Amino acid sequence: MDHSQHQAEAASAVEHADRIARGVAERSRWYTRFLVVFGIGVLLVTPLWGLLTGGVASVVLNIAWVVFVIAITVYVRRQPVAARGMARRYRWVIGAFAAIYALVLVGGFTAFPHNPTWWIPSGLAAAAPFFIGAYLEHRR
Amino acid sequence: MSAGTHPRHELDDVIHAPVRFSIMATLVAADKAEFSFVRDTVEVSDSVLSRQVSTLEAAGYVKAIKGYVGKRPRTWLSLTPEGRAAFDAHLTALRTIAASAITASDNQDQPPHQDRP
Q1: Is the pLDDT confidence value at B104 over 70?
Q2: What is the mean pLDDT of residues A112-117?
Q3: Does the pLDDT value for residue B109 go beyond 70?
Q4: 3-class SS at B13?
Q5: What residues of A are in contact with residue B91 (Cβ under 8 Å)?
Q6: Among candidates B79, B81, B76, B93, which has minimal Cα distance to B16?
Q7: DSSP codes of every residue in A20-31
Q8: Of all helices (H) and strands (E), which one includes residue A98?
């Protein structure tokens, strides 16, 4: 094999690897959808959690949340590929969410029980890591 | 020219085979990928992929983890840190070789050297 053929093959192999990487990234876009859907769930459930005063509505909310989390977990487990760095980035998202959520719950239940001025913005704050994560994934 | 300085000497024989190169290219872009996804991406049969993955596992480049999604068995493939480093080095060598083609081509496009009058 002559020198120019080696060079052409090398260029072709690099292009092939780049094409495969683009395909993997494309097939990993489920993660952005997952973050948006999870964020919407948190956005809706967090205020309801703080505003509902118990009874049947709270039970229904808890059951709905468990069903939602199971459904979204099954969705994630069925995905055939996770792009490079996705697990690490998700740990940041879930870590930020956990920290904000803990503040929201502790602050809300101790100082602002059933107070919409606390709980409605809190939903947005708790969901923010998911929406920011989704935005950053979309830009990748 | 001294022997062993050309970037082709940096190419990894295990990775250089086309199917194994494609497997590595798929896995380097992923944290993990399901066996069937890699098979479809590389466009080979189950048996060919199994054989090539075994070779890459023996080299310490790939690890396979078996599990279940519901009741369905699944095999997840991922690169080891050694595999990732080896593929990066291999790809760097390929890029160097390809870039030398561009440089050579650019040089050929230059007008021939003319002596000053």
Answers
A1: no
A2: 91
A3: no
A4: helix
A5: 14, 17
A6: B93
A7: HHHHHHHHTTHH
A8: helix A86-111
Question: Which amino acid makes up residue B13?
Answer: D
Judging contacts by C-beta atoms under 8 Å, the chain A residues touching residue B37 are: 27, 80-81
Q: Residues B86-115: what's their mean pLDDT?
A: 71
- DSSP H stretches of helix in B1-117: 13-16, 18-28, 35-42, 46-58, 81-109
The answer to whether B45 and B38 are in contact (CB under 8 A) is: no
Q: Does B65 touch chain A (CB under 8 A)?
A: no
Measure in Å the smallest separation between the Cα of B50 and chain A Cα atoms: 17
B26 and A CB contact within 8 Å: yes
- The Cα A85–Cα A78 span in angstroms is 18
Give the per-residue pLDDT at A108: 93
Biggest CA–CA distance in chain A, Å, is 80
Q: Which of B31, B36, B93 sits opposite A80 (nearest CB)?
A: B36
Q: Who's near B19: CB < 8 A, 6+ residues apart?
A: B42, B44, B48, B49, B52
Q: How confident is the model at residue B27 (pLDDT cuts 50, 70, 90)?
A: very high
State ipTM.
Answer: 0.84
Q: Which residue has the higher pLDDT, A97 or A9?
A: A97
